[in-house]
Design a protein that fits this description.
Keywords: Hydrolase. This is Glycosyl hydrolase. It is built from 17 helices and 45 strands. It is of the alpha/beta class. Among the domains are: 121 residues, no CATH class; 72 residues; 176 residues, Sandwich (Jelly Rolls), CATH 2.60.120. The protein has an eight-stranded parallel beta barrel with strand order 1-2-3-10-12-14-15-16, surrounded by seven helices. Strands 17-23-24-30-26-27 form a six-stranded antiparallel beta sheet, with helices on one face. β32 and β33 form a beta hairpin. The protein is globular.
């Protein structure tokens, strides 16, 4: 279908100036809560000026000696002021319905606290045996079982024995035996990172009454104080209710749903009996249903009655499923890795099944830890990975709200980055935010093109539960990692699919389904797959060999073919039916020269620049569109068959013939305050220069006078980066730490000025900038800014206030990775810039 010139023109126009709702947001941490109106105004004003689109307000642990109490009048008034100020600045304001994670607090009494089955093994002899029922008042023995054997030679099976209110009665038997008891008791988990006055148990996410209790105690006061009309969405972070595998209503609910009682068979949960897999599948599927019906649904209903949208990271424990996302409004994931199966792929798959236009991700969670190590290039590189996984709304993790009263650098979150204006590289932030805004917007157009459904072996995951009951983690670990990697690198994109979503897939659409080898298929799923094959669809099993991929290729050609193939270059494709949009990204530290050939390629293809918003036509060769991708570079290609009408793209400029090339070696160094520090030789590392020092974070200027140059246009080239494949030393809590594995020529950003006129900020590959017309005698100034890691390493106040907070409020957090603050840090100019005519 050929698009109208008007439709294409409007798409180009909006790409150049995308809507505000595509801007990245920030998780905004309030410590205590202990914020003032001045703190709020300062943070929000800085965000708006940098191009951040909004905040997700989340209250965590206290750091001051006299914090406000959570949900106090002062706290609620601060939330109201923050929402009002955000509205004035054009920022979205989202609200987390609790403190820390997971949800709970002092309003959760023992009957409503999360519970688990605690298993006890005791060896007994052949005589009749009575054990007193003892324990905490909130504990309940829900099952006792005896089997022949010992603790060294465990029983093959068990039989239930009577449990009364007072004791357990085991009849006589023969030989040694094992008494197995299941005690339902509170998990004991309290809210992690809780605000002051919000300490208490995590609630039972299988209980609708517990959910309503929390919403009445916490959600209601916050929403009433802020006003629903000021809230973009209410938010629930990833579920981390550890080991919660029981609720008091489970026996009755299980019998009603599964058609038999569970009490006599609970022992199957902790044995290798042949009947264990089927029972565990029934048991944990019941928990999934209870979490959906008694947590997600009441949360959504509560939000909708107030005119609000519910945004949830629906994975973790309790064992919510992929299709559990159908109960919420806004779908969110986290973690990067475009050839793997992170939660972002889980979330984007659900969003596509549900027809949701926008899917968000918690971005930069563990990027180049600790705080202030991450650079704009790191942020861009990880965002590309999320985009390749189907994400089109970035929510940065995050922005610490710091009190003006704190000394030194001020407050930080205990983990990950701090992406606020304390970063010395802040001049790059507006450009980065604009770049990601365009990327988010363009990846919301049309529909995703995903050729394959990769089946989640949910039944197998249930059967392998305990100690974990995390359905996302266990089910994705059952898919060999080479399967998603092979699909992506062969040019296919895919959605994960579970039994529920597969049952809704129309066989007439003839989908392609890939099954993990050995997956157990419920009868309904087998019937659906047979119907798909009968309709002409393809079902292949990904065994240990490569034949499955050949069978897939024989039935359906790749969406994108790269020549030569590259393990670092990924692609994601969307289509409006008239216009095709591809985003390709080099996710590695090496430059890649290749051609991209698209299946069903349209008549015309254009390259849309994410940094400038400009559009230029591409010329296809026999292998497709030729691309030179610098390290961590992303490109948008747009295909269409429209005839041009008035405001089409500029013609591609011919490459200028090679001209003069001059290495600029004579520079003077100037301090951030304008003091001339004298001549400087390049390469120049600040940490080695006593005029700057290893503790300095900020901006230094390099100035050169351009003499004896022919007049004309010139490009300033800072040189290539050097790949850095060194390993990252990880802390115990750090999972999936991201960094761009490259040592750039500029550490980390440079604003380029010619005769005092700013030409732009350079912070990513290919580290070049067009100077335009350069005349002999012009003054070139390079304002180089590093990271704030140097200042963090030299600041004694951070460990001091962290230790004082622990003394005053207990151990609610541990600062992460501060001992690695300066590892590999380097500042300045690592190469001699070249002027090319």
């Amino acid at each position: 279908m050929t698009p109208t010139p008007t439709a294409l023109s409007e798409l180009r126009r909006t790409f150049a100036d995308p809507p505000a709702d595509a801007r990245p947001m920030m998780r905004w941490w309030w410590f205590g809560p202990d914020v003032t109106r001045d703190d709020i105004d300062r943070d929000l004003t800085a965000m708006a000026a940098a191009g951040v689109g909004g905040v997700e307000a989340t209250c965590v642990y206290p750091l001051s000696a006299d914090p406000d109490r959570y949900l106090s009048d002062a706290h609620l008034a601060a939330l109201r002021h923050a929402a009002e100020r955000a509205g004035e600045l054009g920022l979205r304001f989202d609200l987390t319905l609790g403190t820390g994670w997971s949800f709970g607090g002092p309003h959760i009494t023992p009957p409503y606290a999360a519970r688990w089955l605690d298993w006890t093994y005791r060896e007994i002899g052949p005589d009749a045996f009575e054990a007193p029922r003892r324990g905490w008042p909130e504990e309940l023995i829900v099952g006792a079982y005896v089997g022949n054997g010992s603790l060294q030679e465990r029983p093959d099976s068990y039989v239930p024995v009577p449990v009364t209110d007072d004791d357990i009665r085991v009849p006589a038997g023969v030989g040694p035996r094992v008494l197995l008891t299941a005690t339902a008791r509170p998990t004991g988990q309290n809210v992690k990172r809780a605000a002051f006055g919000a300490e208490g148990p995590v609630f039972d996410h299988y209980s609708a009454e517990a959910t309503r209790l929390h919403l009445d105690a916490v959600g209601g006061p916050m929403v009433d104080a802020v006003g629903a009309e000021r809230i973009g969405s209410v938010f629930c972070d990833s579920l981390e209710v550890y080991a919660a595998d029981w609720t008091p209503a489970l026996p009755e609910e299980f019998a009603a749903r599964r058609g038999y009682r569970c009490e006599d068979r609970l022992w199957l949960l902790v044995t290798e009996h042949p009947d264990a897999a089927a029972f565990k599948t029934d048991y944990f599927r019941t928990l999934t249903e209870l979490c959906e019906e008694n947590f997600l649904v009441p949360m959504a209903d509560w939000a909708h009655r107030r005119g609000l949208r519910l945004r949830v990271q629906s994975y973790g424990e309790p064992p919510v499923s992929l299709s559990s996302y159908r109960h919420v409004d806004l779908v969110e994931g986290e973690q990067w890795g475009w050839t793997r199966l992170p939660m972002t792929k889980w979330a984007s798959s659900a969003a596509h099944h549900l027809g949701r236009d926008v899917v968000s991700s918690e971005t930069w969670t563990w990027i180049h830890a600790p705080s202030f190590r991450a650079t704009p290039l790191d942020l861009k590189g990880e965002a590309h990975e999320h985009a390749l996984l189907g994400i089109n709304q970035f929510i940065g993790h995050g922005w610490p709200c710091r009190s003006a009263r704190t000394p030194g650098l001020g407050w930080l979150f205990y983990a990950s980055g701090a992406f606020d204006d304390r970063n010395a590289w802040w001049p790059a932030m507006p450009g980065l935010m604009r770049y990601l805004q365009r990327l988010s917007w363009v990846l919301r157009q049309g529909e995703p093109v995903r050729d394959v459904l990769l089946y989640l072996p949910t039944a197998d995951a249930y059967a392998r539960f305990l100690p974990s009951i995390d359905l996302y983690t266990v089910s994705t670990e059952l898919i060999p990692p080479e399967v998603p990697r092979a699909l992506r690198q062969a040019g296919y994109d895919f959605d994960l699919v579970d039994d529920h979503f597969l049952a809704e897939r129309e066989p007439a659409l003839r989908p392609t389904v890939v099954l993990p080898f050995g997956a157990h298929l419920p009868a309904e799923t087998r019937d659906r797959l047979a119907a798909i094959e009968a309709a002409g669809g393809l079902v292949v099993t990904a065994d240990g060999g490569g034949d499955w991929l050949a069978d897939l290729a024989a039935a359906r050609s790749s969406d994108v073919v790269l020549t030569p193939a590259s393990p670092d270059v990924g692609a994601v494709h969307r289509t409006t039916g008239e216009i095709d949009i591809w985003f390709l990204a080099n996710t590695g530290p090496h430059s890649r020269r290749l051609s991209a050939l698209f299946r069903d390629a349209p008549g015309r293809i254009e390259r849309w620049d994410l940094s400038s918003g400009t559009v230029t036509p591409c010329v296809a060769g026999p292998d497709g569109i030729a691309l030179d991708l610098a390290p961590y570079q992303g490109v948008v290609l747009v295909g269409h068959g429209a005839e041009e009408a008035g405001d089409g793209p500029d013609e591609a400029a011919e490459a200028a013939p090679g001209g003069s090339e001059v290495g600029l070696v004579d520079w003077r160094l100037e301090s951030a305050h304008g003091t001339d520090l004298g001549p400087v030789s390049l390469p120049h590392r600040w940490e080695d220069d006593p005029r700057v020092g290893s503790a300095f974070s900020g901006t230094m200027s390099y100035t050169a006078r351009l003499e004896d140059l022919p007049a004309g246009s010139a490009v300033l080239d800072f040189g290539p980066g050097e790949p850095d494949e060194s390993e990252i030393a990880l802390g115990a809590m750090e999972v999936g730490v991201y960094r761009a594995r490259i040592s750039p020529p500029v550490r980390e950003v440079v604003e380029v000025l010619l005769d005092g006129r700013s030409l732009g900020v350079v912070w990513d590959a290919p580290w070049q900038i067009d100077l335009g017309e350069v005349r002999p005698g012009s003054t070139l100034t390079l304002r180089v800014s590093n990271t704030t890691a140097n200042a963090l390493a030299a600041d004694p106040t951070v460990p001091q206030w962290a230790a004082e907070a622990e003394r005053l409020h207990g151990r609610r957090f541990r600062m992460q990775a501060l001992d690695r603050t300066l590892g590999g840090v380097s500042s300045g100019l690592a190469r001699i810039p070249t002027l090319r005519g």
